[in-house]
Amino acid sequence: xxxxxxxxxxxxxxxxxxxxxxxxxxxxxxxxxxxxxxxxxxxxxxxxxxxxxxxxxxxxxxxxxxxxxxxxxxxxxxxxxxxxxxxxxxxxxxxxxxx
Length: 99
Fold this sequence. Notes:
The chain has helices at 3-9, 21-31, 34-57, 61-74, 76-98.
């Protein structure tokens, strides 16, 4: 058996080190304390509401919509990094409250 095969057997599909931030996020959302998950979702929605208000007050809604449509296509790495960062931050917030 090759070294690669041996290494691959050490991890299963559910292993944190193998899964993506998105996978970890949804796994934690399903298994963590419901009240804590709800509080974190409410915090995310509050941040989104404030960001939208800020965009609106500065006349940037159209620019935001344009960027929202173009960023995943024009700079997928930047978009994925930002999205993964949000998944990781939210998982961290939930996990630390569940301890």
